[in-house]
Design a protein that fits this description.
By secondary structure, this protein is α+β, with helices and mostly antiparallel strands. The protein has three helices and ten strands; from the N terminus they run E-E-E-E-E-E-H-E-E-E-E-H-H. Strand 7 and strand 8 form a beta hairpin.
Length: 200
């Protein structure tokens, strides 16, 4: 901020002698810290107005800077979060689940800004499926109504299996029928056609 130069203050409305502090301008800059209240739900690029913390009147109006000051406009930059991605008032969360949870269904605790919430994963959930937790997003600055938490499912494949787990999975693999997996069947047919010379 800019304040009246203490060396020149009191010499009159017009500064006739230069001092080392202001070089005849009658004003000197001073650093100051302010506490600014950030409202919940504020978005990137929005500004907060702090009354009377801006520039003083112009020198031709007030040589020493006294008088009604302008306002300070604080431009907000929102730091990225380690888990959530913002989409308006909604929050997106990548949710890793296991193969058995996706296949058999499960109830999972998901983190929200208000604490954990229970999310039901239905049987046969596919990679990339989305589920909403209503009202667990960010509040709207105007209406106050909260957005949703949108979870995007990511199915994790175990890197290491015990001998028992591998045995069970091999037994399961033997029971699989490609006919009941239309997406896989379509992919395998395209591969076969490609290898046979159909490059479409």
């Amino acid at each position: 901020m800019v304040v009246a130069c203490p060396a020149c203050h009191g010499r009159g409305a017009v500064v006739k002698e230069f001092c080392d502090g202001c070089r005849g301008k009658g004003r000197v800059p001073r650093k100051r810290s302010l506490a600014v209240k950030i409202p919940a739900g504020i978005m990137e690029g929005q500004a907060i107005r702090v009354a009377s913390e801006g520039e003083p009147p112009a020198p031709e109006v007030s040589q020493n800077g006294e008088g009604v000051r302008g306002d300070l406009h604080v431009l907000v930059k929102v730091k990225e979060h380690s888990m959530y991605v913002r989409d308006g008032d909604h929050l997106l969360l990548e949710l890793p689940i296991g193969f058995t949870q996706a296949s058999l269904g499960a109830e999972i605790q998901v983190p929200t800004l208000d604490g954990p919430a229970t999310l039901t994963i239905p049987r046969g959930t596919q990679f990339g499926s989305t589920f909403r937790v209503s009202g667990k997003g960010l509040p709207n600055l105007r209406g106050g109504r909260k957005g949703d938490l949108i979870t995007v499912v990511k199915i994790e494949t175990p890197r290491k299996l015990t001998s028992k787990q591998e045995k069970i999975l091999r037994e399961f693999a033997e029971t699989e029928d490609a006919a009941v997996l239309p997406e896989s069947t379509g992919f395998l047919k395209r591969v076969a056609d490609f290898l046979a010379g159909d490059k479409r």
